[in-house]
Design brief:
The chain has about 290 residues and is an alpha/beta fold. The strands form two sheets. Strands 2-1-3-5-6-4 form a six-stranded mixed β-sheet. Helix 8 links the parallel strand 11 and strand 12. The longest helix is centred in the C-terminal third of the chain and has 16 residues. The protein is globular. The chain starts with 8 loop residues before the first strand and ends with a helix. The chain binds NADP nicotinamide-adenine-dinucleotide phosphate (NAP). The site of NADP nicotinamide-adenine-dinucleotide phosphate (NAP) has 26 residues, from helix 5 and helix 9.
Amino acid sequence: MPTITAKTKILAVIGHPIEHSMSPIMHNIAINDLKLDYVYLAFDIEPQNLSKAIDGFRALNIEGISVTIPHKEAIIEYLDEIDPIAKNIGAVNTIKNKNGYLKARNTDGAGGKQSLIENGCELSDKKVLFIGAGGAARALSYFLAEDVAQIIFLNIRKERSKLLAKELNEKTGVKTFADGISNKNLKKFCSTSDVLINASPIGMYPKIEETPVPKEFLYENLFVFDIIYNPLKTKLLKNAEDIGCKTLGGLDMLVNQGFLAFEWWTEKTPKKELMRNTVKKFLGIK
Ligand code: NAP
């Protein structure tokens, strides 16, 4: 444990609840490894206290803030500058405080896209199929829209996927399509897509025997990204591997969003592998 002095700079995550957050573990290990004079804390902020908390961050000069559920959207009205993609998404997860001036970004989507690129997924002019149309699908799809040719959303609530598809098309110009999730749609769109992204909780611990897409609809040339990180290898990923698809789990996205935030705050490059192994150990996942 490094010595905390009167000069130590403070970083923090806010959310409600917050006790299960992996951010303090992931960031403090990187801080210690680089011997930086920072400490990363967690604050449980109830929604009705959000504006007071923001005043507190300004007054106390807390230099970097990670934002998690349920504040990612509501916090925007209290900030000074939002990066253009985060503004379109309508949600932020990272804030940098420069003498009381609060700038924000969305590193969830950026981290997901970076993970795909680092793992050899071609994006340029490709067709991407999302399962789910919630917060994670929204953040990632806005970043992917910069490169891909078309984005399709299949979701339980058809209206939600249609709304996201419409907004994404209007704001970025990318071609979109949306519908409800059904075997007919899954079969049709899996066979004509290049990248499949599960951004729904189907297959997440403890329901690890579930998969959002039947195995027979997968084909060898599909890149399959499951953003779930517990378990590390979901049933969808196991099925995809059997068929010969390239696959990617959600741990890289989780680590990359933290990595990008850390670099932005400290202007230092943390060791991704160290952050990844620390999260795995903390979660006790295989
Ligand atoms: P969310 O905002 O609650 O959205 C979940 C989405 O999944 C909703 O669109 C929901 O549909 C849909 N869904 C649920 N069950 C479904 C089903 N049976 N078939 C089709 N769609 C279904 O949650 P989120 O924040 O986007 O998170 C989604 C998943 O991603 C979670 O498992 C979360 O742990 C994971 N995640 C991972 C990372 C990472 O860094 N790796 C980051 C964020 C999230 P409705 O709209 O109809 O309810």
